[in-house]
Design a protein that fits this description.
Blueprint: H1 2-12, E1 25-29, H2 36-52, E2 56-60, H3 67-74, E3 82-87, H4 88-97, E4 109-125, H5 133-142, E5 148-151, H6 157-169, E6 174-177, H7 181-190, E7 195-199, H8 200-203, E8 209-214, E9 240-248, H9 253-267, H10 270-278, H11 288-309
Parallel strand pairs: 1-2, 1-3, 5-6, 5-7
Antiparallel strand pairs: 3-9, 4-7, 4-8, 4-9
Length: 314
């Protein structure tokens, strides 16, 4: 009798509705740990978690210039539980370089909001012979092809910006691809190459490097002594590395707006604002429509640059 009463009492307890326990959000970082994309993903994850009331799990799915992780999210259910750190590589330059891209950067995603727009810089050895961009370019003019500029790989933004600089300055630079910014920096310091173009977040804190110019529209608060390419006479080199949040196409607009509101609130906190300043950028308040428009504008720009410079991923 007692067992029957206990069973009856247990069955009488109403079940907790599924919607009372929000499903975790999988935040895909389509690059390896340690880089700028990974850093930004891990910065925003706990902020989103606290504001949305959902667990946010960061998942690194690197490969193919960000395409593997991005494609996984593009093919996920559009219920707001699968997001990706979309970026200039996976949703901008990559679309122009990789003709076999498995997704459309606009049609296959719901773009939610911009996290940061981080500038690149041209770095040289702090112990080397170049103190200014003019000296660097003069050396390239004096001996065409002898000035070697490293990047994190063929078809990357660093590669594209190296070609942009060569065309804007009417010089011949030799591009040297690496598997990431770290080995490219090592060779600059060791004298194997003369320079490297990479995100300031990846090279700006290295005391063995000297930054000659930065690609932002205005000088970065974190590096006030570094001139912009624009002020040095190269306005086409105004080109930031952008990183944002995106989900699969077909997400409910209200869900995307809710995630955007959490992101914008997180970026406005003093602690996050300081972290962004350290990365050479500032907080923003982009709506989903704003970020979608940014991606749409960047795609044809990089397609033209890639085509003119005949940039390839291999």
């Amino acid at each position: 009798m007692r067992r029957r009463s206990l069973l009856a009492a247990t069955l009488a307890i109403p079940a907790i509705p599924a919607h009372a326990q929000p499903r975790p959000i999988r935040l895909v970082v389509p690059f390896p740990p340690g880089g700028t994309v990974d850093l930004l993903g891990r910065l925003v994850a706990p902020e989103l978690e606290s504001r949305l009331g959902q667990t946010v799990v960061v998942e690194n799915r690197p490969g193919a210039g960000g395409m593997i992780g991005s494609d996984a999210v593009a093919k996920s259910a559009p219920d707001g539980t699968a997001l990706v750190i979309s970026n200039i590589a996976s949703h901008g330059v990559g679309a122009a370089v990789n003709r076999a891209m498995p997704y459309d950067p606009l049609r296959d995603f719901t773009h939610i909001g911009l996290i940061a727009a981080v500038p690149s810089a041209l770095g040289v050895s702090a112990a080397g012979r170049f103190a200014t961009l003019a000296q660097f370019l003069d050396a390239a003019r004096a001996s065409p092809g002898s000035v070697r500029v490293g990047s994190s790989g063929n078809g990357t933004t660093g590669h594209a910006k190296t070609e942009m600089l060569a065309r804007a300055a009417h010089v011949e630079l030799t591009h040297v691809p690496y598997r990431g910014a770290a080995p490219a920096v090592t060779d600059v310091i060791g004298g194997q190459t003369e320079g490297v173009i990479a995100a300031v977040a990846d090279i700006g804190r290295n005391e063995r490097l000297r930054l000659l110019a930065i690609t932002s529209a205005a000088r970065a608060t974190r590096w006030p002594d570094v001139p912009t390419f624009k002020e040095l006479g190269f306005p086409t080199l105004e080109a930031n590395n952008w990183f944002g949040l995106s989900g699969p196409a077909g997400m409910d607009a209200a869900v995307a707006q809710r995630i955007n509101a959490a992101l914008v609130a997180a970026l406005a906190t003093p602690a996050m604002e300081q972290r962004l300043v350290d990365l050479g950028t500032a907080p923003n308040r982009m709506t989903p429509q704003d970020y979608t428009a940014l991606v749409a504008t960047e795609l044809p720009r990089w397609a033209a640059i890639v085509r003119e410079a005949n940039i390839r991923a291999d």
